[in-house]
Amino acid sequence: MTVSKFPSGFSWGVATAAYQIEGAAREDGRGPSIWDTFSHFPGNVHKGHTGDVACDHYHRYREDIDLIGSLGVDAYRFSIAWPRVQPLGRGAWNDKGLDFYDRLVDRLLEKGLRPHATLYHWDLPQGLQDIGGWATRETAQRFADYAEVMGKRLGDRVTAIATHNEPWCTAVLGHGIGQFAPGARDFQLAAQVSHHLLLSHGLAMQAMRAAGVKAQLGIVLNQSSTTPATDSQADRDMAEREYATFVRWFMDPIFLKRYPKAPGLDIYPVVRENDFEVIAQPLDFLGINYYTRIWASSAKPPVPAPKLMGENDMGWEIYPQGLTELLLKVNADYKLPPVYITENGMANADVLEGNQVNDQPRIEYVRTHLEALRAAIAAGVDVRGYFYWSLLDNYEWNSGYDKRFGLVHVDYETQKRTPKASAHWYRDFIAANR
Ligand code: FCB
To answer: pLDDT category, 184, cuts 50, 70, 90?
Structure first.
């Protein structure tokens, strides 16, 4: 425990997302989402894995909340499956779905855990995709309607509501390179989708504020520091462009009412008058998800990243100081609201042996990233909490169940949960740093 204490009131949590853990994909009136469609289409996901059952959390949420309590954390970040509460994404609401999130939130509060809800973690109702999905502006209005209903329903009991999780992934991975649902491959479309996502965020913020929602309202963005591989102009330009498309693309509209410019960046969406006024709503918090840095090499073949601290099981470089670099940079570039680190974590090739998982690399990952976070806080960035991704091993999107990010191991045959060494370490770290 070499790291000095974190600010008083700092929140310690774990994070999950609906499609990755809930399962019960066809139960109690839930409608299909684009991830049901995408995951069932042959060739899209590693070994054809789907979220049909996942961690069966829909049926096991009580035990899972007990598990969260046993980690010694004080906050839990989860997402609401839009098609569970509004099966077609417009029109009728599903009481059984709404009741599920009521029970989840009440149970968290009973256990003294602060609920942090996310409205959109990628599972768009297929009914909306069928009429255009995020490619159409109307979907932004549907999202605002959904936000208003959920805000009214849960806003007096949850600590925070985030509109979107990582809109970059929805836009670029979902519509640019087709790795995620709905699997489109068109960068002009991805740019337009990103604009509709931002617009939907602004409209949802307005709708929830107008409804008097008391919870802290904000958005969650995935961000990275960026390093040019060499000092060449080409590499520096590339680094600037990558940073602009990854970080500034979402930060500039929200904080500066414009899209960024960068060398070679030439795809922009159609923007209507007044859109930036809608997008740039004041935030109560900004959620930042940090996993790795971006390494920019324009050479062919590219100069590889040095990976001095190794890589995770996804092949992502482990680079904790990138978290400090990133936080200091965004804090200098924008007038930030309080920040939560809403995701940070590591996929590791864990093995369960004699009811134990000795995941030392994960402990080292979290320890070094918390040190990097501590350094950013010491340098003046207002960070109010940290959520480890993830509570459980779960459905890692197009990687299926093969990549394990959890503090708790899941045996998908039996659904048995086994806290890993990192879970015990995290509990002790939190206790020592409160
Ligand atoms: C983030 C996602 C989350 C999880 C982690 C590993 O991009 O928000 O759902 O897949 O990566």
So the answer is: very high
- Is 5 within the bounds of a domain? no
Write out the two tokens for 48: 């054809």
Please tell me which residue in 22, 166, 240, 396 is annotated as part of the active site: 166
**175-181-186 Cα angle (round to 5):** 15
Q: Is 343 a catalytic residue?
A: yes
The tens digit of pLDDT for each residue in 395-426 reads 999 999 999 999 999 999 999 999 999 999 99
Q: How many structural domains comprise the chain?
A: 1
Pocket test for ligand 1, best of 294, 390, 397, 399 (most atoms within 8 A of CB): 397
2, part of any domain: no
Instruction: Output the CA 289–ligand 1 centroid distance in Å.
Output: 8
From 240, 317, 343, 396, active-site residue: 343
Is 340:387 a contact under the CB 8 Å cutoff? yes
3 occurs within a structural domain:
no
CATH number of the structural domain spanning residue 173: 3.20.20.80
155 within some domain? yes
pLDDT above 50 (res 2): no
Active site residue 325: no
Tally Cβ neighbours within 10 Å of residue 270.
10
Which residues' Cβ are closer than 6 Å to ligand 1?
Answer: 17, 20, 165-166, 169, 222, 289, 343, 389, 396-397, 405
pLDDT, residue 434, reads: 86
Six-digit token string for 177: 């390179």
Which residues lie across from 162 on neighbouring strands?
118, 218
- According to DSSP, residue 18 is labeled H
CA distance linking residue 109 with residue 71, whole number of Å: 16
pLDDT in tens, 218-265: 999 999 999 999 999 999 999 999 999 999 999 999 999 999 999 999
For 173, the domain range is 11-432
